[in-house]
């Protein structure tokens, strides 16, 4: 296996640029992931093109050599450059980004739509919960944390490629499109909303749960575009729930019937 | 207001020791919290003894001066010492730790028990969800993250003093005590368990949700001590849910009836 010893290697620089720039990821249709467990997991739903491993990582996990794509050994100081955080496991993969569009949205499906959810941890967590509870896709508005950024990938634990992710631009227009297909769109909103316990959980023509940013919640335009609103009722002992938690409870409520 | 200019001030050193040592917190029955929003929030459920503020924090939030206790201005370099992380808001409070014991557990109540949940973020999140959903108390086994450590306090957003927290030692014994009071104790376990959807949500004599550590789950002894087991059913697209998420969904299922 060829060994890369220079941090200036073109393939390494390309991978680093994928990790740091959302625009570059979009233009290239590729992303970089890190992790001994995450990279094999991502292979279940995305094409691995290039794998970079340190010698010690390959010793610990010889099965990494069975993964597809071009493989390179990298020296530790090169691995340090590929990593976005100080601690890493010495395993990095360049993957093709699966591309999905609004046209795939279908009557009877189950969707999650996020509006300007900026925290990568929350976006990753919600992807993981949506995949766990049998959702058919996730719509992301402009301004959401990038699904294929290193932090989000870690939080989603690979779910990013196990559920279709659709860049949906402005949500009110996307929601109008979903409603045109008969899908009930429910906005998560604290005020003037019905408690979740009162919301039906089965929607034969489909349902879309719409969740806003941690600080501001949904825009008025997006709430107005939805079919109705729901909230998670709480005691007055807390002011709010964490966005990942609140969203996951909604997803659980609207889960696939067989679960 | 007296101004503290030295990092060697005895009150400052005492506060720092509360932040860094669980044993010292327990011995003293006090804890240190940081945050412009968190300190006033904690006053709703714990006695504030000493408040340290930087001048700029007090200018931004003059209402801090209305809080109870002794108040001190601190210079920025003293505030940096009081903070456990690099970024802080210049507001620190020494509070009396509310003390609760197993004797307070009552038939008909709703409880959460955690066994060796080590991540402070998960413990804090679960406290917040338990308070939100009307639980009457949280039991912590040996080996759980300390509820009154700075990280856990931040994650719980003050919920740590809005719901009784009980140090319960070894869970099997605590669970036997709860069952003696007629409380149904349900262990969260992935295998040989009933799906959550099949579990009743109302328990007139009380219910306790029992959750284990992120990596290992519950010990066999604790599962055996419980009345039954539950799991959150999932598709095979993910391996697991985040512990804070899974626990919060369980808490939502067993929430106070009025919610």
From TrEMBL, chains A, B:
GO terms for cellular component: cytoplasm. The keyword NADP does not apply. SMART domains: SpoU_sub_bind (SM00967). Keywords: Methyltransferase, Transferase. The keyword Methyltransferase applies. GO terms for biological process: methylation; RNA processing. CDD domains: SpoU-like_rRNA-MTase (cd18095). Residues 32-101 form the RNA 2-O ribose methyltransferase substrate binding domain. Its EC number is 2.1.1.-. One of its GO terms (molecular function) is RNA methyltransferase activity. It is an enzyme of class 2 (transferase). InterPro entries: Alpha/beta_knot_MTases, MRM3-like_sub_bind, Ribosomal_eL30-like_sf, rRNA_Methyltransferase, SpoU_MeTrfase, SpoU_subst-bd, tRNA_m1G_MTases_N. It comes from the Bacteria. PANTHER family: RRNA METHYLTRANSFERASE 3 (PTHR43191), RRNA METHYLTRANSFERASE 3, MITOCHONDRIAL (PTHR43191:SF2). Belongs to the class IV-like SAM-binding methyltransferase superfamily. RNA methyltransferase TrmH family. This is TrmH family tRNA/rRNA methyltransferase.
